[in-house]
Automatic annotation (TrEMBL):
GO terms for molecular function: carbohydrate transmembrane transporter activity; maltose binding. Gene3D superfamilies: Periplasmic binding protein-like II. The keyword Acetylation does not apply. The keyword Lipoprotein applies. This is Maltodextrin-binding protein. CDD domains: PBP2_Maltose_binding_like (cd13586). SUPFAM superfamilies: Periplasmic binding protein-like II. Residues 33-59 are annotated as: Disordered. It comes from Paenibacillus monticola. It is a lipid-anchor. GO terms for cellular component: ATP-binding cassette (ABC) transporter complex, substrate-binding subunit-containing. It holds the Pfam family SBP_bac_8.
Amino acid sequence: MKLKKLMVLTAAFSMALSITACGSNNNANNNGGNAANATNAPADNATTDNAGTNNVSSTAADEIVPEDGATLTIWESKEERPFAEEISKQFTAKYNVPVKIEEVAPPDQVTKLSQDGPSGLAADVVLIPHDNLGKAASASLLLPNDIFGEETKADNTEASIVGSSYDGELYGYPRAAETYALYYNKSLVKEAPKSFDDVIAFSKTFTDKSKNRYGIMWEVGNMYYDYPFIATGGGYLFGDNGTNKDDIGLTSDGAIQGLKTFVKLKEVLPIKSGDINADIKRSLFNTGDVAMDITGPWELAGYKEALGDNLGIAPIPTIDGKTAITFSGIKIFGVNAYSQYPNAAKLYAHFASSKDAQLVLNKLIGSVPTNNEALQDAQITGDPFVSAFAEQAKNSQPMPSIPEMGNVWSPVNAALPEIWDNNADPKAAMEKAVEQIKDLNNGAAAQ
């Protein structure tokens, strides 16, 4: 296969050491930002206090001060809003800068920033999956992480720094590592299944569509969660370790074979892809009507509350005898290049991604930290659930961060429902998706 084995092993090993894991499916609320922050050009780093130095000590937060009259707007996910509310309260108490929170799904934020940034309607600080960084950075939508750059690099895992960088420059402030795993209800499933054959065998004894009861459920129309069926047998998105836009591996023999296994699961999950979303799945799992759920750490706090000691988490089951490979990535804060208050925005991004903030995020949401000291904290090392995500991270691949990654989602997320709902041939559906991706890539290059 074109994605060299060495590259895959290197990425997986890096992820394992760094406990790096991304993506999410949050509901968007497209409220605008603070119009009072309107500006016709990106903020000039040279005019910010103490900007431009890459040799910053741990006292950088004491040396930079918010602009007079600064107020901030922050974009945050719906599921993680409790964290934003707590951290914003602490930030305002320390720096006397009011913070307004608006709910926008992280995968939607770069597109919204490109539309609203120049007019001053966007948030000052955005939260994005690292695979969207290339699109944002290449369009000059974000300010580099300069004042806190060296501190950020020293404090966080190597993989999270790579994910927060584009074309050799650090832009992001990493706050959480994400992949997904298999949640299961121990009162229904005595032992976590080792393979998807085991999943099918159990589900045949449990699934009853007439009672809205299913052995397993996940968002079958979402490439993020379906990636194991593409990658485990050797498929991939872009070659050369995710950097070659002209080498697309979605129609490789390994990808198509994995998608045939994907189709087999329709027997035990006999519902349309459009009838599965995060809210439906969550409700059914909490009530015991779904025995197993494939999702990420953002559901951990709620599932622990609902199931208590009956909650278990395990790596994704094997596919065709091979260890499942998931997508992984990180969520990063970025500072809007058009912010009227870049000092205050950089302070917030740094403050909200610190060791203490990442531990708060873990406590409230269940996320996996990227901060090295936080990873060694007893709160993390003593948590069997976080450890399960770390185990899956050993067999994960970071999502490509080149701008063309943004061209993948719509075509593939259209092909998967065709395969699942309408029995489309996997190879034909993926060939169509690849052509659409290539057209989008060439169109983007021509602009």
